[in-house]
Amino acid sequence: MKLTPPKQLTFWITIVLAVLGVIGTFINIPFVSALAIWFVFVAYALLALSLIVKGL
Q1: Residue 35 forms part of a structural domain
Q2: Per the domain annotation, does 30 fall within a domain?
Q3: Most exposed: 14, 24, 27, 38, by fewest CB within 10 Å?
Q4: CA 3, CA 8: separation in Å to the nearest integer?
């Protein structure tokens, strides 16, 4: 399996989602705090998918 680096936009989207998830764990943010673990999971899944799919 050949991995490709993600595009910069995809990388920054995953960083923002992961940071929101972590911050939402410690600080009460409406909507984000209730789904904080899912924000981190989606960020990780999107980053992993962007490594596998070329051009994402």
Answers
A1: yes
A2: yes
A3: 27
A4: 15
Residue 16 inside a domain? The answer is: yes
CA distance 15 to 39: 10
Q: Which of 42, 49, 45, 51 shows the shortest CA–CA distance to 20?
A: 42
Enter the pTM of the model. 0.87
Residue 42 inside a domain? The answer is: yes
Residue in the structure block whose two tokens are 């789904």: 35
What span, in angstroms and rounded, lies between the C-alpha atoms of 32 and 26? 11
Per-residue model confidence as pLDDT tens for the chain (56 residues): 788 899 999 999 999 999 999 999 999 989 999 999 999 999 999 999 999 998 77
End-to-end CA distance of the chain, in Å?
Answer: 16
